[in-house]
Amino acid sequence: MSEEIIEIREEAGEVQGGRRDFLKNLGIAGAAALVAGPVLAEAAAEPVSPDAGMTAAEMFQGHFVLMSDEEKKKAVARLEKRYTAKYKKKTVVSTVPPPEGVLFGYALDISKCTGCRRCVHACVTENNQSRHDPEIHWIQVMKLTKGNDSFAAENLGKGYPAKSKFGDYGVQVGGNAYTPLGGIGTHSAQNYYTQDEMVPSPDHYYVPVQCQQCEKPPCVKVCPVRATFRDEAGVILIDYNWCIGCRMCQLACPYGARRFNWGEPNLPAEEMNPKTHYFGNRPRMRGVMEKCTFCAQRTREGRNPACEEACPVGARRFGNLLDPESDVRKILDKKRVFRFKEEFGTYPKFFYYVG
Amino acid sequence: MVKEENSRRAFFKKAAAAVGIVAAAGYTKTLISKPSESAEDLKAKYANDAISQEQKLMQTPLVLMTDSEKKQMLDEMLNNYNKNKEPA
Q1: CA-CA distance, A350 to A346, in Å (whole number)?
Q2: Is the separation of the CB atoms in A149 and A185 below 8 Å?
Q3: Residue A316 near residue A119 (C-beta atoms within 8 A)
Q4: What is the mean pLDDT of residues B50-78?
């Protein structure tokens, strides 16, 4: 069919466009939809904000540990720009590496803890946790009834680990299966005693629980994308941007120390701590896991964790397990040390002791 | 004479079709990616997490460590640290 004929037939209203035209239009529209669809949808889903342009770049970035220096710089710049715009204060996202020659450990004196929960609130403030709906706490303070404790002090120097086919470091927790040393029962524990309750109650112990920074962490083993990992200083961290939110780590953690952001965290701009670390307290997003990092933003710069500083009775001791003169090592050497019974051989680096 | 396929009307028709498809795609994506939970649903999920984590802790008594266990654990940690420091 010649063009002339088509024109004549179009004028007559006979041909509204051939199959080819239809397919051409469809192709153009399809391509446009493919290109613009997700962008427009994103804009429709979320309010227009200064960070709208940053989201896609962040979504497609790789694991921070595996990035080149250049990529790391770009990623950090993106985050700083976004946080600064969102919270309206100059935000710094540090990438300071862990210090050399350090293996962090923590010890908490159960006999001193008064259950005041100042550590909990210091942690929330320092680590930019969701303030309400929901209020996320990385530290839970358990209230245990006194009387559930029993120790066979004469057996303290005994117990074994015996050699086994797995080597000298087989599973061995508190005495042995036949003659346990005893401990403190947690079956009547309460985590959520009321805020206005007078503490300490004479009939109770208080045991704050947070990430135990296991030497052999089950959460790291189960992470399908290695978003959670152990750093050189022995602290378990999360790359929030790499986390896919599968919650396997939460299931694997025997200490219930991980918190999942089901919704968008609620962090008021005026309460946001702008001094952050990439693996530490930078604001998290919906659908990712978070937990205690021993305040990576502080401890990587030679400071103590916020909970340690906030404790009014000095029940908390933080230090370097490699240093025989550190408080934590001395406590391990001299004190009666407890840990949560854990049959999986996780080797937590958080100890409880009686001073 | 202006050909129908090059006319302004045809252009607008194509543009309208494209916008329609883009809008449909965007709406679909929004429906898929937007959280469907209400505030109550979210609250229930957070509460579920809290309860299960509390139960985990209840089943985990604090156990006193023997001296040998303390030593073994520390040795294990220090060995692990030194092993990781060795060049591969």
Answers
A1: 11
A2: yes
A3: yes
A4: 85
Max Cα–Cα distance, chain B, nearest Å: 99
Q: Given B49, B56, B58, which is nearest A260 (Cβ)?
A: B49
Residue B1: list chain A partners with CB under 8 A.
Answer: 7
Report the phi/psi class of residue B38: left, alpha or beta, with left for phi > 0 and alpha for psi in -120 to 50.
Answer: beta
Residue whose tokens read 């079709």: B17
Please tell me the pTM assigned to this model.
0.76
Instruction: Note the pLDDT of residue A139.
Output: 94
Choice among A27-36, A167-176, A235-244, B75-84 with the minimum mean pLDDT: A167-176
Q: Does A183 touch chain B (CB under 8 A)?
A: yes
Burial class (CB in 10 A: 0-12, 13-18, 19+), B5: middle
| Residue B40, helix vs strand vs coil | helix
Q: Which two tokens stand for residue A74?
A: 């770009």
Mean pLDDT taken over chain A: 82
CA torsion sign for A85, A135, A348, A352 is positive
Q: What is the pLDDT of residue A129?
A: 95
Q: A203 and chain B: CB distance < 8 Å anywhere?
A: no
Q: How far apart are CA A333 and CA A324, in angstroms?
A: 9
Q: Is A161 at the interface with chain B, CB within 8 A?
A: yes
